[in-house]
Amino acid sequence: MAQEYASTQPQGFQNRINKIAIVGAGGQVGKFITEELLKVGKQEITAITRKGSETVIPAGVTTKQVDYDDPESLKAALEGQDALVITMSVMAPKDQETKLIEAAAAANVAWILPNEFGYDVTHPGLYKDTLLGAQKAAYRDQIEKLGKSSWIGVTCGFWYEFSLSGGPERYGFDLDKRSVTFFDEGSTRINTSTWPQCGRAVANLLNLKVLPDDEDDKSASLLHYRNKFVYISSFNLSQRDMLDSVLRVTGTTEKDWKIDHEGCEERYKAGVAQLQTGDRRGFAKLMYTRVFFPDGSGDYETSKGLQNDVLGLPKEDLDEYTKIALQTVQTVQYA
């Protein structure tokens, strides 16, 4: 395929994304993506929601309700959009993303950010062992086969404040009980991102120019990431680093905490067995534990590099987001 430049496009070509549709605009990461796009303020944002949804959508965002069983409903909602951002729970019906991708193709939406926003699914071990690799690859393949849209995946690792506060199945911490289980020695480093960093990454990505201006233009553009992943991160750290941050924020010492150890492979197998009994906590356990295997799978910063600088992402304060995680636990318990 010949290199494309804005200077060679037909008259009227706009070298930017002007209209963005978001699925899950009021959800966990979708909320932050929406907020950051509104802060930039250069695009029209549309939230795609189910009919009858009572999700609160921020002011300044247009809402279009759809029926996932009606392809025309989805197509109509996406008509005129330049990009579609899909954020949804891993527990959402598997065909929901398929239907969105088909509708985006029918509506000639040029760019899709599929429901990635997690660990590096291109790593062979994670692809095979976390139960989501083939499913996510199928969505990306579908986009390419339909031939109307291009995709960009955002790899951000697990969400830090969510994972630290979410119980021992995730990063091994029970903050309320002051206990932590280290996987192996707790020294394996992984990449992890905060929700605001994910939001900034998507907003800044979708504010890149679509094509280079001409052959002399070496600045970043969406074309550079067409049908590829961008890798972003807030922190590269181990469970021990997380505990050090918790100790600083809480003013406690290791003597105040119950610290256990569990082998990664044994813990992963226990998660698989737990899931097979129908206990969904096993899915979180196996997925999170697999990222901490000592094979570098969770540390994509070292193996792939990051696009933080290209996307203008700031350095963040670890203790600030550890404090947010602690407050989240308290809010959940005492609200």
Topology:
Blueprint: E1 19-23, H1 28-40, E2 44-50, E3 62-66, H2 71-78, E4 83-86, H3 94-106, E5 111-113, H4 124-129, H5 133-146, E6 150-155, E7 158-159, H6 160-165, E8 173-174, E9 179-183, E10 190-193, H7 195-205, E11 228-231, E12 235-237, H8 239-250, E13 258-262, H9 264-276, H10 281-291, H11 300-304, H12 318-334
Parallel strand pairs: 1-2, 1-4, 2-3, 4-5, 5-6, 6-11, 7-10, 9-13
Antiparallel strand pairs: 8-9, 10-12
Task: Characterize the structure shown.
- With 335 residues, the chain is of the alpha/beta class.
- The chain contains twelve helices and 13 strands.
- It has helices spanning 28-40, 71-78, 94-106, 124-129, 133-146, 160-165, 195-205, 239-250, 264-276, 281-291, 300-304, 318-334, and strands at residues 19-23, 44-50, 62-66, 83-86, 111-113, 150-155, 158-159, 173-174, 179-183, 190-193, 228-231, 235-237, 258-262.
- The chain has a seven-stranded parallel β-sheet with strand order 3-2-1-4-5-6-11, with helices on both faces. It has a three-stranded mixed β-sheet with strand order 7-10-12.
- α1 links the parallel β1 (19-23) and β2.
- α3 packs parallel to α5, α8 (239-250) crosses α12 (318-334) and α9 (264-276) packs antiparallel against α10.
- The longest helix is centred in the C-terminal third of the chain and has 17 residues, at 318-334.
- The model has no long low-confidence stretch (mean pLDDT 95).
